[in-house]
Amino acid sequence: MITIYDIAEKAGVSAMTVSRVINNTGRISEATRKRVRKVMEELHYIPNSMARSLVLQKTHILSLLITDITNPFYTTIARGAEDAAKRSGFRLLFGNSDEDYAKEKDYVDMILSTRVDGVLFAPTGDHSLEHLQQLQKHNIPFVVLDREVPGIEADVVLGDSKEGARKLVEHLIGIGHRRIALINGSQDVSTARLRHLGYREAHTLNGLPIDDSLIIHVNYRDFHDESALEALLQHPSPPTAIFAANNMLAVGVIKSLRQRGLQVPQDISVVCFDDFVHAEAINPFLTVAAQPAYQFGSLGMQLLIERIESEPARENRKLILPSELLIRASSQALVRA
Amino acid sequence: MITIYDIAEKAGVSAMTVSRVINNTGRISEATRKRVRKVMEELHYIPNSMARSLVLQKTHILSLLITDITNPFYTTIARGAEDAAKRSGFRLLFGNSDEDYAKEKDYVDMILSTRVDGVLFAPTGDHSLEHLQQLQKHNIPFVVLDREVPGIEADVVLGDSKEGARKLVEHLIGIGHRRIALINGSQDVSTARLRHLGYREAHTLNGLPIDDSLIIHVNYRDFHDESALEALLQHPSPPTAIFAANNMLAVGVIKSLRQRGLQVPQDISVVCFDDFVHAEAINPFLTVAAQPAYQFGSLGMQLLIERIESEPARENRKLILPSELLIRASSQALVRA
DNA sequence: CTGTTAGCGCCTTCAT
DNA sequence: ATGAAGGCGCTAACAG
């Protein structure tokens, strides 16, 4: 491996001079600077970032931890985060917890031993508290993404889950639906709690009763699980519309409905949170509360970088990004029997 | 920051002993081992992997470079790669080149300075040769993924682009189509060249003429570009079926067709490479040549890890993973006019 | 079974 | 404008 000493020797200077050339620090005569640069190129020298990290106590690596790499919402976040990190010259250590607490723990250990400069952290749920506290204990700056964790004070970037849910359900109510099912994520996750609240609020505001037997909690990644839908369809007084708490669940629902020969929206309406590119090719073209996923990632990363680079500890910031109700073909006015 | 010296002092041993406890090397009495471990826990000690990397000349970091993080094919690869890396205790430095040569170059520089132990590399195209050669020059092991690069000898994991394309087109021919368009990626990319070849082969084998005006080259990520489709629809003798070279292009095609009021498959059939979860919810349920994306990632990562860990340089290996023709609703027998 | 010494590649500090 | 010494946190090699 080529080191600054190899360069120094060949250029007839000291290693320190080479270091100065690399980092553009100190005063170096133009002549030596050129000579050193030339040798560096000849020898294909690449600085060793590990050695540099060790002495600088900065890795220039940020970590992004998401909960589901197969979900377009999160991959779009990843794209935003990656672009932002790259713009500021940070490398990205990537992690996918698969909504799994144990995997999340492994990643936190990795993050800790890697001494990353900061973490953009989408928690699997409230129990992620422990992991976040671990980061705090080791003074690793982080920004919480997408889901709030009670007990943690930190920068956070969120969607407006309650509002979005309310808008979706009010849309359904507005077009005549009265029996609306909710297929939701685990109540251990803040977004699921808030979407549930929004769902209830929409009912209450419109003077409608809430039938708890129409509310089902699964895991955000359990989109293959048909038992939830099955239960709803077997219901003595089945729903005329389904609100799936995220896009993956919605796709699962539509698939299952199709397998049972049920048409959306003719037989039943379906709406969900989170848009995705392929939604536009899906039939029925889904009605969604679209969240600005890319911004989740890029703004989150920006907050993180600012926090790292701003010396005097800033106050915590909370960004709530609005969702947009996109009414499309999967929800249809209820034809009264 | 807590170091082994802090541990050593508090436990009344030397730093070396602590190091031995951490790494389970050498002979340590059970008593001291326990004492050391206890102190480590008390002080919440986490080994500094940078320092370790520096002395061991191994980072235990692998890099995965993909070309499109918004494409489910690649995110599924990422998932497979990540799982495999994790199983072997490697960290994953993640990169997304966006099918962009310049971004790819940036990532190669990052990879080089990070001194990763190896790279799983999905090249943007033939011109990636330069980047791969750079890795070779610096003795960084890599496995080429998804796309072959002429001039590079290395382990490689590929799909059977030609075969898959041939099967798709023969399926279309088999149900009566004679004018089949190809919306393909750039000819600078091996998969696009092979899919083109498969397309031609299917025609030749079936004694059909090839109309080059039905073959259009775009970029795999240009799924928003409607000009290709526009040209095909304006054709004096328009196609009755479209073979989109990947899933993203297919989704773009279906969207555009819908906007023009054309029905798939009634008005025109569409088939493509690469399946994706959401395909099953799409209407029309796409006919695809499904590739085992997860295996691309996990097998690729396995090859990489084996190459890193096997001392005597093994021969290069070439894995070709078959695709599966899934005939679904988007392709329909041609009704002769 | 445990400790000492030296050095991984780089940069900070202090000299010159 | 440049160099020498020392140290970041860790471990290999050798000593005892």
UniProtKB/TrEMBL annotation, chains A, B:
InterPro entries: HTH_LacI (IPR000843), LacI/GalR-like_sensor (IPR046335), Lambda_DNA-bd_dom_sf (IPR010982), Peripla_BP_I (IPR028082). Keywords: DNA-binding, Repressor, Transcription, Transcription regulation. Pfam families: LacI, Peripla_BP_3. SUPFAM superfamilies: lambda repressor-like DNA-binding domains, Periplasmic binding protein-like I. GO terms for molecular function: DNA-binding transcription factor activity; transcription cis-regulatory region binding. Residues 2-56 form the HTH lacI-type domain. This is Catabolite control protein A. It comes from Paenibacillus sedimenti.
